Amino acid sequence: MKGFQAAARGIAATGVTHVFGLLGDGNLTMITHLAATSGIEFVRARHESGAVTMASGFQRASGRRAIASVTQGPGLTNALTALTAAVRDRVPLLLVVGDVAPNDLYHLQRSDHAAIAALAGAGFVESREPSQIEADIAATMAVAEREQRPYVLNIPETLLTADADGTDEGTAPPQLTREPDVEPDVEPDVEPDVERVRVREPDDIERVAELLTSARRPVLLAGLGAAKAAAGPALRELGRRTGALLATTLMAHGLFADDPWSVGVSGGFSTPQAMDLLADADLVVSFGARLNALTTAGGRLYRSASIVQVDLDEAALGERVSPTVTLAGDARRVAQELVSALEARDTPVHVGYRSDRVRRLLDDWDPERWPTGDAVGETIDPRTFSAVLSRTLPRERTIVVDTGHFMQFPSTHLLPPDERGFLLSVGFGSLGLSLGTAIGAAVGRPDRVTIATMGDGGFLMALAELETVARLAPRLVIAVFNDAAYGAEVHHLRAKQMPDEIAFFPSVDIAAVAASMGIASRVVRTAGDVESLNAKDFDRPLLLDARVDPGAVAPYFARKYPTG
């Protein structure tokens, strides 16, 4: 058995159903052998950035293991932005990279892969023996999951072409009953999930329970850490017992999707009602949330509230705010401990923040119907487009949002069914990552319709992957907020009282571009253009070229960059 065959066996042994990638000299033998012998589908991207974002979207939407593969040198540098975003989004994926022979000093594609991975913030493992390739893949995948970040596994050409131990028996995965004894050349900096319990002071839980029972306007805030820990049910029960309102960070949007006492997203993307309620909170218990500027609306929220911060990552405690109490631990377990403490006290259920007045405030907000906004000329208000799209699409959906000025509109008015139904592609602040993310999500959750939302700038950056959409034909709606501009830069320039013409571009007929690739498409100028869609339209790729009003300003931008 050759090294490339061992690599294919190792990938198959992880249990993945799909590998996302782009072939090149460095990885073509192992990937071709994998695709031919394993039954694993190799999803071919048109750009390495697309391959990594597809793997990221697949993992985030499905919760299953994700592997991508690219070639050496420019293959890895092309993936750098997407890899950095996956690191920032804390996605545990494995990127298998072929590399030039160590002694080929003048190879055109030679580059320092370890340094590139370090620049992204990803882990890095170098395979050193052909006989250890399978074990390296298994162990590196385990460490990526342990640390909740991407890892690059680097396999030089000399190992892939060398003889490995054993015989070629195809890529049928061995039956692994435990993690392999061989560990890669890395030191994990986070304990495994089974050890997610931290030593705390004995009275910490009691102290927080006392704060919750004495608070008049408590809020439970859930972040990505809470979503990853599956803390939703425990937090709902804790909220019921204490009368706390429920809120999430943008990264955990959807965790409380069907709860009547959820105010939605906390911070810059809050509804007007939520902003008022959260600003008036007297206690905030944060579970797995970093409490950054977006979550606190630049510090405007929670100014007078006592803050309890719960996080598995001890370095995050007190990093952005000065909490009254900190608890290091898993969000779900801490929430359960708090419920148990309240039960032991025989504490009656509080009304807290769940009053009739608050109920009326929450009932006044319907993101799918208000506000509609008046557009200029033959354009549609982006709020109207988002709201009518949410009303028209099937409820079982995955929403993917790109970076850009437009992003608050779908984030506010397109409603996700749960926390895996909302994927934000802003970890590194780069445009153009949502299309690949959405393709991966659609592959990972074919039972749901995936909606990729992006501006025209982000769409044109990711244009190559439109061919991937046409080829795979997933249940994917591409909603382009087309204002013929880089909208964020337009509003930045206006806030600085500088000319904005440089941020505008000639209008591109994006619907025609999609149609040229065989993708159903339509231009959207009115609500009726969306409302006329039917269920069959969502069973195949569909592109909506929404000609949105370039003068519509997202509330977050209006607050952060006032022009008056």
Please give a quick description of this structure.
The chain has about 575 residues and is α/β, with parallel strands linked by helices. The chain has three domains: about 5-185, Thiamin diphosphate (ThDP)-binding fold, Pyr/PP domains (Rossmann fold, 3-Layer(aba) Sandwich), CATH 3.40.50.970; about 200-365, Rossmann fold (3-Layer(aba) Sandwich); about 380-560, Thiamin diphosphate (ThDP)-binding fold, Pyr/PP domains (Rossmann fold), CATH 3.40.50. The chain has a six-stranded parallel sheet, with helices on both faces. The chain has a six-stranded parallel sheet with strand order 9-8-7-10-11-12, with helices on both faces. The protein has a six-stranded parallel sheet with strand order 14-13-15-16-18-17.
Q: Can you give a write-up of this model?
A:
Helix content is 36%, strand content 16%. With 564 residues, the chain is an alpha/beta fold. It has three domains: 3-187, Thiamin diphosphate (ThDP)-binding fold, Pyr/PP domains (Rossmann fold, 3-Layer(aba) Sandwich); 198-363, TPP-binding domain (Rossmann fold); 382-560, Thiamin diphosphate (ThDP)-binding fold, Pyr/PP domains (Rossmann fold), CATH 3.40.50. The strands form three sheets. It has a six-stranded parallel beta sheet with strand order 2-1-3-4-6-5, sandwiched between helices. It has a six-stranded parallel beta sheet with strand order 9-8-7-10-11-12, with helices on both faces. It is globular.
